[in-house]
Amino acid sequence: MTALESPAKPAGAPVPPPPRRRGGRRATALAPRDKLVLGLMLGVPSLVHLALVWAPALGSVALSFSSWDGIGGFGDVEWVGFDNYVDILTRYPRFWPALRHNVVWLLFLLVVPTLAGMLLAVLLDRQLRFGRVYQSVLYLPMVLSLALVGFIWQLIYQPEQGLLNNVLGTASTDPVNWLGDPDVNLYAVLVAAGWRHTGYVMLLYLAGLKAVDPTLAEAAALDGATAWQTFRRVTFPVLKPVNVVVLVVTVIEGLRAFDVVYVINKGRNGLELLSVLVTDNIIGESSRIGWGSALAVVLLLISLGFIVTYLVQVFREEGRA
User: What whole-number distance in Å separates Cα of residue 263 and Cα of residue 23?
Assistant: First the structure.
């Protein structure tokens, strides 16, 4: 046997396994063409996301510390530090009513449409006759934009020709101006927004209920639990991931509300929201880019508070798993 020859392996000798990567995965080599395709599939969406989401967000944060009317280049920007935030909190009379309306909007969506959507999901999960038709009809408002929802409910809330006053019998005697009265118009618009949001919540809970193991309910029934006890002690705890998703979606929906109030009266006379103030200051007649950016940053911070809480819970659950 020469030095270049290797000794023959005995029969039945174990074959060494192929090289593996860390984590137990087999190492695979990608062809240059595959690497190019993979780079394009990951790089192009990432660049678009950075250009359309992160760049404007960071730009708004930077401009919130400035005083700029949008005319001229960035060389005309005057940096004022935290003066915009101080003025918004102390000298801007529309800020606190708008913040209060956003809080009311958020609480309403968290309570009324969430409970209604959960109830409808539980009922539709019982294999009702024409259940698919009911699901489609109840989810149909979610397909519509909030601007179109505003137009529809304007017709319903008309003082004299509207459906609601005619049903109540007050159209000819003492019509209620549902959208013109600042004492009631916010709650009237919330009904319209809740009508649209209920179908989405119903769909999320219905998907969660379909994933629940039916043997859990059967075991609870064998133990003598009622339908309400089974839902409260067995089904609802299993729906915890869906509850978190519904919470985050509802918070985002409540904070980004803009279309429906802007269609009705441009977000004035009792319908002020933070998103409307951002629009009025940035593209309105005043063109206060710094003020509008500061308001946008306030809205961003409120949104991030809920989103970060959600991400922390998700990562914590994955760490326990």
Answer: 55
Model-level pTM? 0.78
pLDDT digits (tens, 9 = 90+) for 146-183: 888 888 888 899 888 888 888 888 777 888 888 888 88
Contact 77, 161 (CB under 8 A): no
Sequence-distant (6+) residues with CB within 8 A of 26 are 18, 19, 20
In this prediction, residue 1 has a pLDDT band, given cuts at 50, 70 and 90, of: very low
Distance between CA atoms of residues 289 and 273, nearest Å = 18
- Burial of residue 204, with CB atoms counted within 10 A of its CB: 0-12 exposed, 13-18 middle, 19 or more buried: buried
Phi and psi torsions of 79, nearest 5°: -85, 130
- According to the 3-state scheme, what is the secondary structure of 11-49? CCCCCCCCCECCCCCECCCCCHHHHHHHHHHHHHHHHHH
Q: Residues 110-119: pLDDT tens digits?
A: 999 999 999 9
Q: Which is nearest to 85 in space by CA: 271, 296, 256, 308?
A: 296
Q: Which residues contact 157 (CB under 8 A, 6 or more apart)?
A: 164, 178, 179, 188
265: buried, middle or exposed (CB in 10 Å: 19+, 13-18, 0-12)? middle
| Residue whose token pair is 């710094």 | 290
Q: Which residues contact 117 (CB under 8 A, 6 or more apart)?
A: 197, 198, 199, 200, 201, 202, 203, 204, 205, 246
Q: Which residues contact 189 (CB under 8 A, 6 or more apart)?
A: 150, 153, 179, 260, 261, 264, 271
Tokens 């940053």 belong to 297
- Distance between start and end Cα atoms, the chain: 56
